[in-house]
């Protein structure tokens, strides 16, 4: 499975020849310098919550590509008022079949609100099971005991966890989260974009190594195999 990181908490996956874009925040993202949002492909767009650093390019990319947007019911309704009609509203619950695999929404401990002040509903994470591998996208979240449910639903090949602290888990909590979800291969996101979430990346890498785990920190704009 291929993952391309766009900085902050934005990335895309290629699964079953479908491009799945997550939380498109390119415009105004200091970690995404040199990345043109008009050239990012998308068949599906997943939205974890409504904050501007996750939806800045959502309407533009959804409109350009016609991608199906998967988001909580409130964000889906908001998108329809903005002219985006190809939406699939979800909430926490069971697995839903899509062309790339099975997806379910899971709890994320955070806040949500849309850039124009509209109510953003509950933040989400996603568990995705596919023929090419299984993954967990935590979204913006604190460490939560709910993560211990995830191994009941999926044997994960990798997980995408925030590590920047302040608004989300830090690296130390992400190590604990990796224990909860029974997954030792972690892609770290939501760090170093702004001063308030700057971290010592080497210390984070060392924490994971000491725990016998792998932390991947992809370079923005580069694709990696996961």
From TrEMBL:
Residue span(s) of domain Metallo-beta-lactamase: 7-190
This protein's record includes keyword Hydrolase: yes
InterPro entries, per database record: Metallo-B-lactamas, RibonucZ/Hydroxyglut_hydro, UPF0173, UPF0173_UPF0282_UlaG_hydrolase
Record keywords: Hydrolase
Pfam families: Lactamase_B_3
GO MF annotation terms: hydrolase activity
Family: Belongs to the UPF0173 family.
Protein's recorded name: UPF0173 metal-dependent hydrolase FSB73_17500
Native source species: Arachidicoccus ginsenosidivorans
């Amino acid at each position: 499975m291929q993952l391309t990181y766009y900085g902050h908490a934005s990335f895309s996956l290629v699964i079953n020849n479908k491009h799945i874009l997550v939380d498109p925040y390119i415009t105004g993202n200091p970690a995404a310098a040199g990345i043109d949002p008009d050239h990012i492909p998308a068949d599906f767009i997943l939205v974890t919550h409504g904050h501007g650093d996750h939806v800045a390019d959502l309407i533009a990319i959804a409109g350009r590509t016609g991608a199906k947007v998967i988001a909580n019911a409130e964000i889906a309704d908001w998108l329809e008022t903005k002219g985006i009609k190809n939406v699939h509203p979800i909430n926490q619950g069971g697995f839903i079949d899509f062309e790339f695999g099975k997806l379910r929404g899971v709890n994320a401990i955070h806040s949500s609100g849309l850039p124009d002040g509209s109510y953003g509903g509950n933040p989400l994470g996603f568990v995705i099971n596919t023929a090419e591998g299984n993954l967990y996208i935590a979204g913006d979240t604190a460490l939560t005991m709910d993560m211990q449910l995830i191994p009941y639903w999926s044997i994960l090949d990798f997980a995408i966890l925030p590590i920047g602290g302040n608004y989300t888990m830090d690296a130390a909590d992400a190590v604990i989260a990796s224990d909860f979800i029974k997954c030792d291969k972690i892609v770290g996101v939501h760090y170093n974009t702004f001063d308030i979430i700057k971290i010592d990346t080497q210390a984070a890498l060392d924490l994971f190594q000491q725990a016998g785990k792998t932390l991947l920190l992809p370079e923005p704009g580069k694709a990696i195999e996961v």
